[in-house]
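Hey, I was hoping to borrow your eyes for a little while. No rush at all, and the record is pasted right below:
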Amino acid sequence: MGNTQTSTWQRWGQFRLAVIGELLSCPPATGDLQQDIARLAQKVYQHPINGSQKITFGASTIERWYYKARHADDPVAVLGRKIRSDAGVRWSMSNALFNALKNQYKTYPRWTVQLHYDNLKVLAKGQPEWGKLPSYKTVLRCMRDNGWLRSHEPAQPTQGQKWASERREKREIRGFEIAYVHGLWHLDFHHAKIRILDASGNWFQPMALAILDDHSRICCHLQFYLAETAECLVHGLTQAFMKRGLPRALMTDNGSAMLAEETTRGLERLGIVHKTTLPYSPYQNGKQEVFWSQLEGRLLELLRKKKDLTLSYLNQAGQAWTEQDYHRRCNREMKATPLDRLMNHKSVARKVPDSETMHLAFTRRITRKPRRSDATVAVAGIRYELPVRFAHMESVVLLAPSWDKSQIILVDEKTDTPLARILPQDKTSNASGRRRFVSSESPPADPVETHEQPALLKKWMADYAASGLPPAYLPKEEISIE
């Protein structure tokens, strides 16, 4: 239940209006005002702030209230307690002490309030003109009122962390929500605070991949992996696409898996806008952080006592928790369950392409020059054989993910249309000596014998003869041969 208490000055104004209310609603007859005021002054009233305290008021006080509220448009505001003119001024702390504390906080924002107070006490002893140092509580209130809260930044921050800290100080932070379902997805990895056992007897800390819809908070896909890689990201993201459709935009952080070429090119080819958070600013993906707290507090708490926890069992439990608990629990901010929002609000999702198109989307674009001798190209230290019909090309464009070297797709340079599937070179099979005949699409024409001189040579000879000059050389063997 929310706190519906009114402010102190309003409660005093309402109380004073209640005291003189009968004088305003039923004005006394001429000459009876002082008698009615005296009667009100003899009453005992309950304190408007402290309910256990009883108070009384003098006749002159009640009379002053009456004349102030008689012709006022807002009697509560007129009768309310005025704010002191020196409100906010700390008389117990001199300006010199205040400035010293301010400079001290700017220099050492990671200090606790107690450490600031102890250091300020030593400084004040060496500067008697600063005045007496107030109590610890006064310093604590001063720091809280000015927003000088303890910083949890690293002791030796990097340049990026410094920029992020300065940005938080200079720019306001606001929450947001997209207006339609599947208008924006959030994707993030999380180090699950639990350990699992693999088939080889090794212990691992799994990585949880979660993809959430911004508007409905629906979990499009949740899966645990052994590492945070682009392969795992694409594996989970394609499953989310197949479950929920293609979103309009995807927000991630600046991790290596999120910025991998396969990820960025795949989102571009599928027409999904890729938005990244600012460096060292996890609050921009706050909905993911809330989801991680629920994952740790509900699902993983139920699994901590299980012995020999495997990745397979963890993923099965994760799917059951997502569908049976998370999607059906009411979100206090939305006042609805994620499933209700998904079913009852407008969606802007797009149709999912076939699996082959999805596979080709999340690939790198590689350009290579084929080797003329055997029509092969080298990618990541592996040679792939081109079909003979493409051996004449100066350069070829290939599509392939970095984690799958079993095949590469040859595509058209201009449209990226798939042309052929290329496999690694099998040198053992090539050693058998069997070779295919190279057949061209059109049979070569029969050569035609002619004794006529080429037109260009004939022109040179005619132009030289027309100059009238003798040949510029002395014949030798030509005489004996001819």
